[in-house]
Amino acid sequence: MKIADTGCALREILKTAPRPCVLVPTMGAFHPGHISLMLRAREIAGPLGTVIVSIFVNPIQFDRAADLAAYPRPMESDLAACEAQGVDIAFAPDASSMYFPDRSITVTENLLSRGLCGATRHGHFDGVCTVVLKLFLLSGCEVAVFGEKDFQQLAIIRRMVRDLDLPVEIDSCPTVREPDGLAMSSRNTRLSPEQRADAPRIRQALLAAATLASVEEILISARAAIEFSPFARVDYLSLVDAESLQAISCMERPAILATAVFYGDVRLIDHVALSPLGSASA
Ligand code: AMP
Description:
By secondary structure, this protein is of the alpha/beta class. It folds into 2 domains: 2-173, 3-Layer(aba) Sandwich (Rossmann fold); 186-273, 2-Layer Sandwich (Pantoate--beta-alanine Ligase, Chain: A,domain 2). It is built from 11 helices and 10 strands. It has helices at residues 7-14, 32-45, 65-70, 75-84, 95-98, 117-120, 124-139, 151-163, 193-198, 201-209, 215-227; strands at 2-4, 21-26, 50-55, 89-91, 143-147, 169-173, 232-241, 255-263, 266-274, 280-281. The longest helix is centred in the middle third of the chain and has 16 residues, at 124-139. It is globular and about 55 Å long. It starts with a strand and ends with a strand. Bound molecules: adenosine monophosphate (AMP). Adenosine monophosphate (AMP) binds next to helix 2 and strand 5.
């Protein structure tokens, strides 16, 4: 496995890399969710193609300095995990090599990022789009693989590719969960034992509410089930159209019931997909 720590080094390595190139953008601190994306990338690239995993804790997508400072960065074990998965190139740049101190150009998304996580995390998705565009340009990848866990991010990246005519195909993988249903996340390790034991209620609340008939019942029931916890504080709970991500008032089209929940200062997200007939998936 080759390791590049600057964009120039990555481009140099890529001069002789076999195509196709499949990119998995990450912020590191790998768990089985990330590994599933690497496996999918290899499936797409084939045995002879090139799988690139980027490991970069992107400062411009954090709205809270404490969250950025607390983000885990186990670089050695991450590189070992890439190696073990047969990744061809790990791209692990410093923030100083990705961003000029006087950088003044940013990608802005103006619709899908207004609600859900974007409502309280100002500038987050602009930071995500900016770094993902840079990673697409630096890697020249034909395909990039993202997790469905971050479904708003996935929808926004697909929109960016569409609106900016980017020559990259976006592929996605289902959310990988702990045996008790909690969506795997690098942030789970920051939960206290009591918070960790309580956190599967998020998924249970969403699944139970998804069986109800009306939008109002769904929202009231899910919120009550989450807030019954002495540890959990709902940041948002929304039922949105699966495509436009805009809030809905009746169940006529595929929808997503999504939430972000604070356990102390740890923010966890999860969602379920709902069909108009009332069944939940994902
Ligand atoms: P992150 O490093 O957390 O920014 O995530 C990097 C990629 O891994 C994103 O495309 C995420 O959606 C994906 N990812 C994170 N957690 C999971 C999970 N539990 N299952 C599947 N994909 C995930």
